[in-house]
Design goal:
Layout: E1 5-12, E2 22-28, E3 31-37, H1 40-53, E4 57-61, H2 70-74, H3 81-85, E5 91-92, H4 102-111, E6 121-123, E7 134-139, E8 142-149, H5 154-157, E9 166-168, H6 175-184, E10 190-195, H7 199-208, E11 214-216, E12 228-230, E13 233-236, E14 244-253, E15 256-266, H8 275-285, H9 289-293, E16 295-299, H10 312-325, E17 329-332, E18 344-347, H11 348-354, E19 360-367, H12 368-383, E20 397-399, E21 401-405, E22 415-420, E23 423-424, E24 430-436, E25 447-455, H13 456-465, E26 478-480
Parallel strand pairs: 1-4, 4-5, 8-10, 10-11, 11-13, 17-24, 21-26
Antiparallel strand pairs: 1-14, 2-3, 6-9, 7-8, 12-13, 14-15, 16-18, 17-20, 19-24, 19-25, 21-22, 22-23
Helix pairs in contact: 1-8, 10-13
Length: 481
């Protein structure tokens, strides 16, 4: 008689507070197509179906849940609490959750009905862990140990307010002792890592740390249609915006995974929403509905952030920056979040989905040498051959220049040429640059830095009023040669 136990793990990662249906981008042949997906009520319905299908089911969230849309931003994540608590999540970890500051995030965590796990966040004053490192769940006669690793870049690349009073490590040194506790003291059958380091970082980490059976990976928005094996560790990641769930069905015997099957599940628009969660979603959205439904323009270009070197969505944002400031150059961060906008009407909701933080517009003067140093640093943070040196996001979004670079070259030696207009950038010459205050141009670069009175949403809205319709096509700003 077999002692095999069937276990199902469901993963949600990087849902970015997309409460309801939204557009998502898919590649088909030589072009992109768009269709509506997602929403927590549809996610809840799918998880309920999976639980009916599998008696032993665990549901994990890899973070980037509390930020990304206007209702989340406006309530500092609080609008999500009743919804998330109704979905039967077992554990989570974090990244953009710190957008409202560590103190506010602690308040949100206290309101959750499930644990926030992070092996790698410490109090600056005491050096003690801020959150539990692990939790053990019993299901189907199995003891499952969950560990969490939060994003480690929060105190390195994000605004200082995100990490006030706390610091972040990679987690690599903290993992082995906890794995040992789970194996020897807690006597678990399986160890599952809930990670927000990113897919490349997780693969390197798992090649260096033994004893993890499953890694639920987040942060880099990979849509893995099949798992990746690092040694015996099974790794999955499931897109973003709550447009997908990852389902991993396991056969476990004697503390070993003897078989597994994986599905990347699209949260399709025709999924019947869970009525209880749908009610909570509509209640959360109701106070903002009229404001967000306002039509502010029209686009002829499909706006998305689905491309690494340059994106149509950010070209729109940068075009608005150039017009509102009269600067020569414009910069923004290479954010990955932001649901697409298909050709047609643009609403306030679309603008806030692009940049929910609505930071101020700033200007600075940069020399050609500083410009090259800033872009070399960004290319290293995006494409470093050492995953631990990759610091999140796509290539910095730029307008007003053209960069020709060799992606495979070592740090500091990728850029071949930079042109501003038709002239090559001169090392000692100053150029005026506009940027969004969060992560546009790092503090160490430039002179005469000024924060202007307008915020980026105002600038984008004003720009749309003059564009009928908007065109924001790709321009070949960054070209890999």
């Amino acid at each position: 008689m077999s002692n095999r136990t069937l276990l199902t793990i469901v993963q949600m990662n990087d849902s970015h507070a997309y409460f309801d249906l939204h557009q998502e981008m898919f590649w088909e042949g030589d072009h992109a197509v768009y269709r509506k997906t997602g929403g927590y009520a549809r996610i809840a319905a799918l998880v309920k179906q999976i639980r009916a299908d599998s008696n032993n089911c665990l549901f994990c969230d890899c973070g980037d849940t509390f930020q990304g849309t206007f209702p989340a931003q406006k309530t500092r994540g609080k609008a999500l609490i009743p919804i998330l608590n109704s979905m039967g999540i077992d554990a989570m970890t974090a990244h953009w959750e710190f957008a409202y500051g560590p103190e506010v995030f602690q308040q949100r965590v206290a309101e959750l009905s499930y644990p926030m796990l992070a092996i790698n966040i410490f109090d600056k004053a005491t050096n003690k862990p801020v959150f539990p490192s692990y939790v053990v769940k019993e299901v189907g006669g199995l003891r499952i140990g969950f560990m969490g690793i939060a994003s480690n870049i929060i105190d390195k690349t994000m605004p200082p307010s995100f990490s006030e009073g706390i610091y972040f490590t990679l987690g690599k040194d903290e993992l082995p002792p906890i794995i040992n506790i789970l194996q020897t003291e807690e006597k678990v059958d399986l160890i599952i890592l809930i990670s927000h380091l990113g897919f490349p970082q997780d693969l390197k980490l798992l090649s260096e740390v033994q004893g993890i059976d499953i890694c639920l990976s987040g942060h880099t928005h990979n849509r893995l249609s099949e798992p990746v094996l690092i040694g015996k560790t099974i790794v999955i990641q499931s897109g973003c915006h709550g447009s997908f769930l990852g389902r991993l069905d396991l056969g476990v015997e004697g503390g070993q995974i003897i078989e597994y099957r994986h599905q990347l599940i699209e949260v399709e628009a025709n999924t019947e929403p869970d009525p209880e969660v749908e009610k909570l979603v509509q209640e959360a959205l109701a106070p903002f509905k009229d404001e967000l439904a306002e039509v502010v323009g029209e686009t002829a270009t499909a706006l998305n952030r689905g491309t690494t070197l340059e994106s149509t969505m950010d070209n729109f944002l940068l075009q608005a920056l150039l017009e509102t400031t009269g600067a020569q150059l414009a910069f923004s961060n290479g954010w990955r979040f932001g649901a697409p906008v298909i050709p047609g009407k643009i609403t306030m909701n679309d603008l806030y989905n692009m940049i929910p933080m609505n930071p101020p517009v700033s200007t600075v003067e940069l020399t050609g040498a500083e410009l090259k140093a800033m872009l070399e640093e960004n290319l290293e943070r995006t494409f470093s051959c050492d995953p631990y040196k990759q610091m999140g996001g796509y290539v910095k979004r730029c307008l007003g220049l053209n960069v020709y670079f060799k992606m495979e070259n070592p740090a500091g030696h990728r850029i071949q040429k930079i042109f501003i207009g038709k002239e090559e950038a001169k090392p000692g010459q100053y150029y005026t640059a506009a940027f969004v205050t969060m992560q546009g141009v790092p503090e160490k670069f430039g002179r005469n830095r000024k924060n202007r009175s307008e915020h980026i949403i105002d600038a984008m809205r004003k720009y749309l009023s003059r564009q009928h319709p908007l065109s924001a096509e790709l321009r070949g700003t960054f070209v890999a040669v």
